[in-house]
Structure to design on (571 residues):
């Protein structure tokens, strides 16, 4: 046991091989990715939902085009997406390796995923509730702010939680572009250097983080959910 | 207050089938301050009619006028402004779960841009008006069905509309809650002078609160008028439903006839009916029936047992006598027929 705990993965800090530093990098990549993803993905989900209901031909075309782009984004294997994105990453982030480059690729992968989930959350609002507020003379902006987002909020919190957990999984692959983090540590030290202690420690820590995120997400969803429990 | 002129709504064919004619040339006029019931089976077009009144559906043809505004011709901001003059109450209330009772009630005011202070004052008034004191801060999930519908009604009234449209407001409620909600709607009409259109498939709702009633069948009006006119017309389709038939008798050894009366000048009461029957049979007894006084006029659907003069054994009257009596009743506007048990 003490032999295990003296492994540099536990005792060092700030180095490439430190469990704690890499955990912080994983958390940084995950939460930065989610900040951008929520900022882009929620409006995109709203756009998908709103354009779906329209009867105007050009709006329906917008829906089809955006829907297609989202589907393409979701069907790319992440590892291929990272490589395919490299030229764009270089322009936007300035470099193709490191955590920030990884955040860009992670965001591109997570946005379509979240957007579809948000669209599904919005569809679950009974049409009668939306119509009731339309009949009060609500504008589209009022409808979005006062009905769509608040009524779908418990579901939206769940979707953000799910996307966050998927992103944690993807950060492991981000090691490929030198993203660092727990996945990369497990790969370098555990898998390639046959250090089972590092392997087990990173996996256990990843599981703990995922459980923590899920618990937090579920708790927030419960607090904002005023629907009858069935 | 509401005028429909040749209102027609055709829905496009659902994949390859025939187009659905939901409303077919509806002409209707609702006077201010009346409670107007619209009845009809499921699929008759009731909801489509109410959706046309709020501009949620555009009519295929015809005019829809509410409070002097031609709703069908409006778009965008003008339509939104016109909608604020119309309150709406739904079968399942359609409250927002994310809002408390008070926030739901004040929602139309929020949309209209009223200040917080104005809103709070008006919500307090409405809470009192519909009897929801103490429930303001509850979310819909914490309220009973009747309380939810009270919130729905208060919300419908929040922006002080001239017209309140109710689509099956009591269909999801139990009988005693239904009576409370109907009483509330009637009270509100008395106090606020508001015009109410109430859609329902329940005749009890019509009997309880409507001044006027319109029967919709397959997108057309088949009967329309004041409750009295409609109930008193024994030939019309609604009177049978408004004044229920007595049950078929068992164990009566006599000739039994059913009589519907109400729109005759020469036969105005059940006593007139018995007197006339007694000219043809010694004994005429009302054995079952419903007699209602609507607008100071008696409308009845009764069952008479007829026995010959001095009959020892139990028996009915002769065929000839019966035919004569039925003929005479018909001459006086009574719809009568023999009941064979
Ligand atoms: N949006 C729609 N598209 C196609 N058909 C519809 C639509 N809304 C209603 N209908 C049809 O119109 C008819 C009348 O429906 P509705 O007004 O809902 O009847 P009610 O409220 O009396 O039950 C029905 O045959 C229904 O199927
Ligand atoms: Mg209906």
């Amino acid at each position: 046991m003490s032999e295990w705990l003296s492994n540099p993965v536990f005792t060092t800090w700030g180095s490439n091989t430190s469990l704690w530093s890499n955990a912080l990098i994983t958390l940084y990549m995950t939460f930065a990715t989610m900040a951008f993803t929520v900022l882009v993905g929620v409006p995109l989900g709203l756009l998908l939902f709103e354009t779906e209901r329209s009867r105007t031909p050009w709006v329906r075309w917008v829906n089809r085009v955006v829907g297609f782009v989202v589907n393409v984004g979701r069907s790319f294997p992440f590892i291929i997406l990272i490589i395919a994105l490299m030229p764009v990453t270089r322009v936007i982030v300035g470099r193709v390796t490191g955590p920030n480059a990884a955040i860009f690729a992670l965001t591109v992968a997570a946005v379509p995923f979240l957007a579809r989930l948000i669209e599904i959350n919005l569809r679950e609002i009974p049409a009668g509730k939306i119509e009731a507020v339309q009949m009060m003379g609500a504008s589209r902006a009022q409808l979005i702010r006062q009905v769509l987002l608040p009524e779908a909020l418990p579901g939206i919190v769940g979707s953000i939680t799910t996307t966050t957990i998927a992103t944690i999984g993807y950060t492991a692959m981000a090691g490929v572009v030198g993203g660092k983090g727990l996945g990369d540590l497990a790969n370098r030290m555990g898998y390639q250097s046959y250090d089972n202690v590092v392997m087990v420690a990173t996996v256990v820590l990843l599981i703990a983080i995922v459980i923590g995120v899920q618990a937090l997400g579920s708790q927030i969803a419960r607090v904002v959910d005023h629907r009858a429990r069935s | 207050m509401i005028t429909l002129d040749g209102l027609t709504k055709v829905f496009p064919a659902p994949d390859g089938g025939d187009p659905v004619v939901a409303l077919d040339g509806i002409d209707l006029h609702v006077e201010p301050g009346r409670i107007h019931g619209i009845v009809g089976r499921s699929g008759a077009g009731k909801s489509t009619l109410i959706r046309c009144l709020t501009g949620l559906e555009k009519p295929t043809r015809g005019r829809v006028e509410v409070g002097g505004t031609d709703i069908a011709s409006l778009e965008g901001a003008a339509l939104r402004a016109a909608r604020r003059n119309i309150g709406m109450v739904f079968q399942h209330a359609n409250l927002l779960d994310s809002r408390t009772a008070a926030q739901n009630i004040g929602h139309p005011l929020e949309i209209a841009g009223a200040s917080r202070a104005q809103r709070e004052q008006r919500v307090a008034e409405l809470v009192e008006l519909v009897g929801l004191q103490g429930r303001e801060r509850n979310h819909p999930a914490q309220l009973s069905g009747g309380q939810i519908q009270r919130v729905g009604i208060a919300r419908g009234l929040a922006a002080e509309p001239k017209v309140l449209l109710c689509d099956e407001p009591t269909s999801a409620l139990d009988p005693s809650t239904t009576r409370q909600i109907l009483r509330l709607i009637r009270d509100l009409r008395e106090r606020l002078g508001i015009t109410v259109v109430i859609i329902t498939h329940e005749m009890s709702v019509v009997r309880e609160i409507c001044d006027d009633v319109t029967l919709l069948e397959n997108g057309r009006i088949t009967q329309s008028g004041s409750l009295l006119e409609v109930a008193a017309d024994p030939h019309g389709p609604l009177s049978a439903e408004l004044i229920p038939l007595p049950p078929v008798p068992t164990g009566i050894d006599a000739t039994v006839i059913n009589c519907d009366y109400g729109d005759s000048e020469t036969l105005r009461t059940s006593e007139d009916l018995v007197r006339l029957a007694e000219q043809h049979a010694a004994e005429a007894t009302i054995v079952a029936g419903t007699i209602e006084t609507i607008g100071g006029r008696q409308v009845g659907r009764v069952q008479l047992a007829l026995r010959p003069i001095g009959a020892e054994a139990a028996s009915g009257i002769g065929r000839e006598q019966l035919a004569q009596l039925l003929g005479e009743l018909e001459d006086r506007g009574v719809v009568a027929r023999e009941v064979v048990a």
Remarks:
- The radius of gyration of chain A is 21 Å.
- Residues 2-229 of chain A form a domain with the MetI-like fold fold (CATH 1.10.3720.10).
